[in-house]
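# step 3/5: fold
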Amino acid sequence: MEPEIEARFERLENHLGEVEERLSEQLRDMQTVLLKAFLPWQEQVRIQFRELEANTGNSVLATKQRMDVMERRLGEIEKRLLMYPPAA
């Protein structure tokens, strides 16, 4: 290849790398915003389940199962966050 074409390809690769970095950072930021938004909701639901469990002896097992599902889902989200930590 001609040096001019190689230089253009190199600039294009550099530009694409920069775009990829910015996009990755924006995705991490969005993930962080979502996790922060769901945290209060998750705490509120946990309180509601505790109240439900206290008020109804028959639905204790169902409540625990629901909590287990929520905890598992939250654990999956936390694992993803650890794999792709938010940008500092």
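# step 4/5: annotate
Residues 41 and 54 are 20 Å apart (CA to CA).
# step 5/5: archive (pending)
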